[in-house]
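Propose amino acids for all 385 sites.
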């Protein structure tokens, strides 16, 4: 992938924002279990960073996905995973289908203010009994006159406690599991919506997450995105950008772990010499950085194909799989070289160790990615019967 001056200007904008508006506050936000999402999103919206690849007529920049990838990568410089995750939910999880298939009315009501940072969104797919198995969700939206009446519950919903709207996936008819679902925009102040207490997560502590309960929640049928029964297909499309975003976002985070570990090993002395003088350590750092570069190449290639309009389901699944597994490998290896300091809760590598574990779970578990890749290998040229 070839980056232009425009790409680099955007990269600098995001990097400066992270350094000025996010990193000085990460420790406090992690301790508090949340951050001022509306304030941060309005600042991001003022810079155009919530609508990089969204249509210009709704306030977006109208750029191709490579620019969004650059922003995702630079957000990975944040010294916590929760804030970038919240941003990614807004840009690449709860608004792509709306931008592609939503009516002009829906885009004016939900997409335009989301791009400006005036409204915060969340994505309502996962349930207690249906995480990676999207087809198995049980939330229903039943027609009643011109409305849908929604009943069910959504689990692990990032941004939900402060969100203004949810892009909800629900069963809208009795057809087969892949044909009976629709995506529906749901204002979060609608009567019948309630929340659990904030979920006590292993990592991503600065992002607010809760279970959302929907009891006879009534919304107009015009809040449905596209045709009824096409929600599963739209959600699968949203997943591809979510997975690309997640793979790109972890790159700088892993490089930060490697760089900070090298610096610590230069300063920390054992047996009269710096730790970094141990060949096993500096060889390991070289191996890990090589793996990060391989992830970057895979992610960039998938992005390039996506821009060309190609089906990147296989490549995005590979990038997501590689990102999750490499995240565990890098953070575990780096934490080891910090010794006892690495076992402290506030250690930056320990935080990354907790945060990146989600990559192998959220947006489709590793096992789901492997299943997708296996199925698509059957279509490769040269496959023997």
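Proposal:
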């Amino acid at each position: 992938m070839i980056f232009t001056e425009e790409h680099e200007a955007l990269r600098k904008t995001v990097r400066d924002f992270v350094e000025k508006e996010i990193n000085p506050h990460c420790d406090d936000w992690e301790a508090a279990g949340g951050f001022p999402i509306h304030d941060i999103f309005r600042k991001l919206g003022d810079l155009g960073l919530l609508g990089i690849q969204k249509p210009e007529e709704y306030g977006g920049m109208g750029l191709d996905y490579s620019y969004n990838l650059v922003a995702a990568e630079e957000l990975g410089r944040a010294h916590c995973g929760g804030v970038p995750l919240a941003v990614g939910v807004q840009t690449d999880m709860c608004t792509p289908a709306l931008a592609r298939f939503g009516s002009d009315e829906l885009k004016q009501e939900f997409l335009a203010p989301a791009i400006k940072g005036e409204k915060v969104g969340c994505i309502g797919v996962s349930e207690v009994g249906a995480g990676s198995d999207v087809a198995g969700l049980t939330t229903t939206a039943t027609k009643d006159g011109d409305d849908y009446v929604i009943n069910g519950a959504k689990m692990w919903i990032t941004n939900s406690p402060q969100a203004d709207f949810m892009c909800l996936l629900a069963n809208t008819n009795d057809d087969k599991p892949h044909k009976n679902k629709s995506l529906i925009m749901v204002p979060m102040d609608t009567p019948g919506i309630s929340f659990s207490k904030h979920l006590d997560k292993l990592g991503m502590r600065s992002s607010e997450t809760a279970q959302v309960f929907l009891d006879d929640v009534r919304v107009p049928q015009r809040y449905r995105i596209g045709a009824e029964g096409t929600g599963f297909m739209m959600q699968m499309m949203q997943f591809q950008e979510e997975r690309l975003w997640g793979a790109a976002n972890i790159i700088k985070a892993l490089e930060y772990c490697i760089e900070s570990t090298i610096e610590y090993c230069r300063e920390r002395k054992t047996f009269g010499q710096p730790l970094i003088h141990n060949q096993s350590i500096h060889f390991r750092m070289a191996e890990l950085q090589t793996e990060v570069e391989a992830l970057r190449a895979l992610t960039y290639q998938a992005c390039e194909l996506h821009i060309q309009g190609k089906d990147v389901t296989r490549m995005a699944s590979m990038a997501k799989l590689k990102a999750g597994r490499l995240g565990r490998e890098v953070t575990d290896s780096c934490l080891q070289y910090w010794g006892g300091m690495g076992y402290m809760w506030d250690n930056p590598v320990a935080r990354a160790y907790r945060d990146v574990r989600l990559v192998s779970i959220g947006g489709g578990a590793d096992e789901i990615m492997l299943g997708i890749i296996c199925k698509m290998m059957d279509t490769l040229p040269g496959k023997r019967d």
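The first helix runs from residue 5 to 22. The CA atoms of residues 175 and 229 lie 8 Å apart.
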